[in-house]
Design goal:
This protein is mainly alpha-helical. 71% of the residues lie in helices and 0% in strands. The chain has 6 helices and no strands. Helix 2 (19-38) runs antiparallel to helix 3, helix 2 (19-38) packs antiparallel against helix 6 and helix 3 runs antiparallel to helix 5 (71-86).
Length: 114
């Protein structure tokens, strides 16, 4: 990834994280995007979305989730994010749903730390 925002993660560190940690990090960027959206700051919203999509793409490329049959959920999550932020919001997603979905991953990741 030549233009990677998260160069150390793209270089391989991402695959050392659990799914909860990966999606918790995606959720942090989504949360930032939602926060900037509320403040009508399109430039910062877009930067956060680029980072979120980069992280979810790194998650999609993590072969562990194919083997554990988690890829379908991750791909659907990406589809919903793109639909909400860039599409027609076909799924009628609201910000609170996105925040709640990612919150549980962040919570699980924090609770597994020593």
């Amino acid at each position: 990834m030549a233009d990677a925002q998260h160069k150390d993660l793209a270089a391989g560190r991402w695959s050392s994280l659990t799914l909860a940690e990966q999606l918790g990090n995606v959720g942090s960027e989504v949360g930032r995007a939602l926060s900037w959206q509320k403040k009508n700051n399109e430039q910062y919203r877009e930067k956060a979305l680029v980072r979120a999509l980069e992280l979810i793409d790194l998650t999609i490329s993590d072969r562990r989730w194919i083997e554990q049959h988690r890829l379908k959920e991750i791909l659907r999550t990406r589809e919903i994010l793109v639909d909400y932020f860039y599409g027609d919001n076909f799924y009628q997603t609201i910000p609170e749903q996105l925040e709640k979905y990612f919150y549980y991953f962040a919570f699980a990741a924090r609770n597994k730390r020593p």
